[in-house]
Amino acid sequence: MSKINTLLFDCDNTLVLSEELAFEGCADLLNQICELKGVSPIVPFTGPKLILEFVGQNFRGMLKSLQAKYGFELTDEELEVYVRREEDVVINKLKQGLRPCPGVDDVLARLAESGKYQLAVVSSSALRRVKVSVEAVGQDKYFGEHVYSAATSLPKPTSKPDPAIYLWAMEKLGKKAEECVAIEDSKSGTLSATRAGIKTIGYVGPYEDDKKSEMEKTLKEAGAVVIMRDWKEFDEALEKIQSGSV
């Protein structure tokens, strides 16, 4: 029976329902960048279109993917300007309408009360955005300073599916992979955690009902050892890992 003592939570659409709001802001900004660079995507970017293509990636990762796809270039200075601007746009949207994922607050409260686990957030998004997110819904009390960002915390910024942010978080927490469980809602996030050697619970709650089965398959293929559709299933999912049955 494994000794799990650390739970590592993705933020966007795992703790908070932020992806739809965030991608709306991203789409507006990307359309501006494409216009400035003379790039003409087949149709203008929309929030839903970006979610399908880039869920789990941060804005820096999106910009690099789009440069390769559409053959335009951004200088390092331009990249940093746009990354910062995206933070501001998204944070404003999150402050206006962010909500927690249904049921997660009850789980966090129970976990904190038990005192059995170190709780931390491990995200691709910028640290400023992640902190605003958990503070906006009152979850910051569960994590304190244990919030880690692939875009901000690392010496060299990156994005999931690179495992660097999970390796960094474990180093800072003084934990080994076998002591940890990650909770992720995206393919890139699941790959990031599993490539760091961490057993991962895949969460498909925020996806539309007609997409849930497809996402379950995607997350399993990315390495998730158990899937949950609702936070009510968390205890059972965690017990499967702790017992060694998955």
TrEMBL record:
Q: From what superkingdom does this record's organism come?
A: Eukaryota
Q: Matching Gene3D superfamilies, A to Z?
A: HAD superfamily/HAD-like, Putative phosphatase, domain 2
Specify one Pfam family: Hydrolase
Q: Which GO molecular-function terms appear in the entry?
A: phosphatase activity
- Fetch the NCBIfam families from UniProt: HAD-SF-IA-v3
Full protein name: Uncharacterized protein
Biological source species: Coniochaeta pulveracea
**Lineage, highest ranks first:** Eukaryota, Fungi, Dikarya, Ascomycota, Pezizomycotina
